[in-house]
Amino acid sequence: MELYRSIIEKNTVNDLKHNYSILVVEDDDVSYMLLNEILSSYPVKLFRAYDGAEAIENFNRSNAAYDLVLMDIRLPKLNGYEATQKIKEINPTVPIIAVTAYAHSQGIIDCYDSGCDDFIAKPFDINKIVRMVEHYLVLRN
């Protein structure tokens, strides 16, 4: 993990000035831990949902609780496409970035069609995910 931290520190600009809340919808522990490690040097607090249904429950409790959502697509109970659609019905302004290993052209189209604002393929480029997160958080605030 120290390698990731040095890559991030060398190649990114931290434009984030506030404490942000990010909901990571991810059923895979390793993927979640990697995102947590990558974003640990930023003023963000990560919250986790293990599936789409849990993510929707979180938004039903407080639709403005999160500044950004990182959404896996292949999830148990309710997939990321359906969860994104429902979250956008609850809070249409929250940015949702699809983070998935299924990067074929139809999968990407489906991400955008479901309401995702952006897409990044796993395994993702660390600098790209950091720049994307910064972009959406700075835009939002």
Provide an overview of this structure.
It is a single chain. The protein has 141 residues and is α/β, with parallel strands linked by helices. It has a single domain, classed as Response regulator (Rossmann fold, 3-Layer(aba) Sandwich). It has six helices and five strands. A five-stranded parallel beta sheet has the order 2-1-3-4-5, sandwiched between helices.
Task: Tell me the layout of helices and strands.
Layout: H1 2-11, E1 20-25, H2 29-39, E2 44-49, H3 52-61, E3 68-71, H4 80-90, E4 96-100, H5 105-114, E5 118-121, H6 126-140
Helix pairs in contact: 3-4, 4-5
Structure keywords:
141 residues; alpha/beta; Rossmann fold; 5-stranded parallel sheet; 5 strands
Going by CATH, the homologous superfamily would be Response regulator
Task: State the share of residues found in helices, binned by percent.
Answer: 40-55%
> How large is the share of residues in beta strands?
15-25%
How many DSSP-defined strands?
5
- CATH architecture assignment name: 3-Layer(aba) Sandwich
What does the overall shape look like? globular
Oligomer classification: single chain
How many domains make up the coordinates?
1
Strand order of the largest sheet: 2-1-3-4-5
In whole angstroms, how far apart are the ends? Answer: 29 Å
Rounded to the nearest angstrom, the radius of gyration is 14 Å
The residue-averaged pLDDT reads 86
Q: What is the count of DSSP helices, taking H or I runs of 4+ residues?
A: 6
Secondary-structure element pattern, one letter each:
HEHEHEHEHEH
